[in-house]
Amino acid sequence: MKTITFEQRLNYRLYTNIGCMILAIGLFAIVLFNKNFAYLMPMYSGALAGLFFASLALFFRNKKLKKNPNKMREMELLETDERNVLIIRVSYTIFTYVSIGILYISMLISGFFSETIFYTLLTLLCADLILILFIRHLVEKMY
Q1: Which among 98, 109, 114, 125 has most CB atoms closer than 10 A?
Q2: How buried is residue 17: exposed, middle or buried, by Cβ count under 10 Å (0-12/13-18/19+)?
Q3: Do residues 21 and 52 lie in contact, with contact meaning Cβ atoms separated by under 8 Å?
Q4: How far apart are the first and last CA of the chain?
Q5: For 99, what's the count of Cα atoms within 13 Å in the CB-facing half-sphere?
Q6: Cβ(29)–Cβ(44) below 8 Å
Q7: Local confidence pLDDT in tens for the 143 residues of the chain
Q8: What is the Cα–Cα distance from 68 to 10, expressed in whole angstroms?
Q9: pLDDT at residue 88 in the model
């Protein structure tokens, strides 16, 4: 099984945090300066501010963690502990099945009320299933 070091994993997280902050700023600028999105401004402002500040907080947390070798080793042990890995794996598996089931039931019920919502949920369900297959294929290649 190929694994990456915890320090590399922290670097990936830092890059992801920076990417999310840039994405939030870019999308906020689009929403702010485009008159067509004026009605979406309150909702997008809150969502994008949340994305930005959550990414910023995680960036500083990971940066601080990277500077402290003892804390970094402690966190690595916590993340690689077999019990914690099993709990996370089982939780994600159950969440995936439940969320796909809820999405499927919502899709079926929405068909009685709105054809647009039905096709939107159907597309979302198909995209989720394709994404799961794609991720599984990637993970199988990695390990």
Answers
A1: 125
A2: buried
A3: yes
A4: 5
A5: 12
A6: no
A7: 567 788 888 889 999 999 999 999 998 888 888 887 778 788 888 889 999 999 999 999 999 888 888 888 888 888 878 888 888 888 988 998 899 999 899 888 988 888 899 999 899 989 999 998 998 888 888 76
A8: 12
A9: 86
Please give the structure tokens belonging to residue 22.
Answer: 């840039």
Two tokens, residue 136: 């599984």
